[in-house]
Amino acid sequence: MDGLEKATLRVKEFRKREQLILDTALKLFLEQDEDKVTVETIADAVGIGKGTIYKHFTSKQEIYVLLLIRYEEELAGILQNIQPDDDKDRLVREYFQFRMADPARYALFDRLEKKCAQDESLSRLIERLHEIRESNVDQLETVIKARIAEGKLADVPPYFHIAAAWALVHGAVGLCSSEFYKDRIEDKEGFFSFLMDAAVKMGNRSRLKNVDEQEME
Amino acid sequence: MDGLEKATLRVKEFRKREQLILDTALKLFLEQDEDKVTVETIADAVGIGKGTIYKHFTSKQEIYVLLLIRYEEELAGILQNIQPDDDKDRLVREYFQFRMADPARYALFDRLEKKCAQDESLSRLIERLHEIRESNVDQLETVIKARIAEGKLADVPPYFHIAAAWALVHGAVGLCSSEFYKDRIEDKEGFFSFLMDAAVKMGNRSRLKNVDEQEME
Amino acid sequence: MDGLEKATLRVKEFRKREQLILDTALKLFLEQDEDKVTVETIADAVGIGKGTIYKHFTSKQEIYVLLLIRYEEELAGILQNIQPDDDKDRLVREYFQFRMADPARYALFDRLEKKCAQDESLSRLIERLHEIRESNVDQLETVIKARIAEGKLADVPPYFHIAAAWALVHGAVGLCSSEFYKDRIEDKEGFFSFLMDAAVKMGNRSRLKNVDEQEME
Amino acid sequence: MDGLEKATLRVKEFRKREQLILDTALKLFLEQDEDKVTVETIADAVGIGKGTIYKHFTSKQEIYVLLLIRYEEELAGILQNIQPDDDKDRLVREYFQFRMADPARYALFDRLEKKCAQDESLSRLIERLHEIRESNVDQLETVIKARIAEGKLADVPPYFHIAAAWALVHGAVGLCSSEFYKDRIEDKEGFFSFLMDAAVKMGNRSRLKNVDEQEME
DNA sequence: TATGAATGAGGCTTCATTCAT
DNA sequence: AATGAATGAAGCCTCATTCAT
């Protein structure tokens, strides 16, 4: 193994550790409130020194943003993997499935983003986050537009559909983590099927018609 | 003015200041992240000493809960004021209008509640909060039930309707405070009318039918 | 009732309240650590306002000293009441009985005195405390001297006897409140009779003589 | 020097600083009332930052207990160093000499222990303190028992002798730190020899016998 | 005179970040 | 590069004392 190889290996190790730190941080943030998780806690959980964290990230807040970016990139990966000739709906379905998969995680990211929004020193990363998200949303818009053209969705600005769906998902997540409603919703499965049904139909033009037809039988 | 009157006046002044502190705290919490607002900041803003805050509240966290309770009580007041012979829908409409009126405030309360949930020393107040909320929800359920009986709403457990609407409102609020979407939704008014429309129709039985009928023409 | 009488009555009431405050403070200091007892706690327990305390005493520390003085005065009263033709031993016995009567109280006073010792603003009161105590000790010395003259006590400076007894009593009190020894001394009654026995005999001349005789063998 | 050595050195330095903090704290506690000594005062006196204190101890109270433990361990060391074939009395003598060596220190520890007794979070350390003390007392009991067997001490439970001596030492310490008696005892050396004499003879069997004989006359 | 709301100095503790090894 | 001891700003809270009513 020559010097270059060695160096490459080292870089790889370094990157790997970076991911490990982020993974661990995420896990801890989900378990406890992120304010209660100290940098030392993370370092201990990873099994490295506290100082090492700062070789990878300039601040705790940077960890927040990088987690956000990683999340958005993961989503981008999912969207990218879907073939253009797939059922158009699949894209949308995957998108929301991903977002709903782990409500607590999503809620965490929501908080983290709010926390980072102000910080001037993170603006570069925040920008990047927005770029990725923009691109993800663009992908979705393309699909939405196609469906509108097909007459399958109400002819409103595409972002109406996306934002409405986003809001519903966000709302559902909030509901899940709400101390109060958590206890009140007895038939959780039934409820979410009710909600999802509503979400799908939300801007759906043809579906509404179908429902009618169905009911007339 | 006799002694009793004087004492009453004093108590009134005290309560007034309490409200002033809560008002100021709320204002500051909305302006900055509540973690960045120190007790001293609040005291300074009110124009009183730090110690005075602790004559009214036992901890910063108690301020959080009392703010939550005040919010829920305000809502209760609105619900109570509606006459029984009012249009049944008005109750529901008022409820969501109230919640949507100041999304940032609502988002804040969401965070605050999560922060207080753990604290054992606040359990008494948290309980009271839940009681008020329960009573508010009960009121709504009554209306929902009536509408279901009238055949105007889908016959699912009433809390399906409430929770679904809650989720939508929560989602909309989240959307509003989201750094990213905030910039993307150009026609905000249009969008929210679209969303509200969806919300109202969500569990609406007759509407669905009507739409169908309409489309069959 | 004329003005003078009224004023006298008022003064009486005032003095009475002063005693009530001191009584209550003492009770609370004994129940909890005196540092944990706030001036407000005392006022509440007495059923008066916090400010009123400061009409009677200039500071919390003054309460400490006044309690000390009251204690020493109480002792003086006991010593005074003993007739000069009483059994000489009775004086000594009463003195130590008084001090030992409530070990916790005694231990408290010990702490309080240490706390006040430094405070310059209390020096006047501290002086008075010392005066009373001096007079009490003088009385004892008189008795001790008489017993020495009778040849019943070892002919050492009288304060040797007093201080030695004081130390033993103080030690016994300390023992009583010691967390550790408290559990170890099973036969408490037996032990204290053993200890008292030793104390009484401590400077007892006749015993020393016996020892001498023994040693001469 | 390899890594292991370095690490060992580091740990040593760390421990050394820990001792330095404890030493300084003790010194300050003795100079002023421990309540007047703030954590910052200690840090400043040591020449380190306030936060560093908390790398070594979890709270100010923990410093109290560790000081107590150190004191008791020091005593254990002294007792251990005494050879079994030494004069049996030496153990007892050393024990009380140690305790009497620095009355102010002893009085301080007495206060500290009382202060920590309640604190639940210190229970583990308090337990350890009691263990050490128990073992120290056990050693003494062994000696006392032997002396009782030899007929040199009165045949009462061994803890009678220990506790009585403890009380006397405690009393003497109290006397020393008493503002009033401090000034009154002119011939301190003479007095303490008088007191010690009494202490040593306290449970001394041969003397009791004589007394009995005398009383039979 | 009695009151109790207001005060603010001051204490303890936390933790993100730095830096010498 | 990795470490972890050291740092100190900053936060929360307490309570003796004051003072206007």
Overview of the molecule:
4 copies of one chain form a homotetramer. With 217 residues, chain A is mainly alpha-helical. Chain A contains 11 helices and no strands. The N and C termini of chain A lie far apart (75 Å). The C terminus of chain A is likely disordered. Chains in contact: A-B, C-D. At the A-B interface, helix 6, helix 7, helix 8, helix 9 and helix 10 of A face helix 6, helix 7, helix 8, helix 9 and helix 10 of B. Chain B binds a DNA duplex (21 and 21 nucleotides) through helix 1 and helix 3.
CATH topology of the largest domain in chain A: Tetracycline Repressor, domain 2
CATH homology superfamily of the largest domain in chain A: Tetracycline Repressor, domain 2
Q: Roughly what percent helix of chain A?
A: over 70%
Number of strands of chain A: 0
How many domains of chain A? The number is: 2
Unreliable residue runs of chain A: 206-217
DSSP strand content of chain A: under 5%
**What is the annotated CATH architecture of the largest domain in chain A?**
Orthogonal Bundle
Number of helices of chain A: 11
How do the SSEs of chain A run, as a string of H and E? HHHHHHHHHHH
Distance separating the two termini of chain A: 75 Å
Assembly type of the shown chains? homotetramer
Using the coordinates above, name the CATH class of the largest domain in chain A. Answer: Mainly Alpha
Helix/strand-derived category of chain A reads mainly alpha
User: Which chain pair has the greatest contact?
Assistant: C-D, 52 and 50 residues
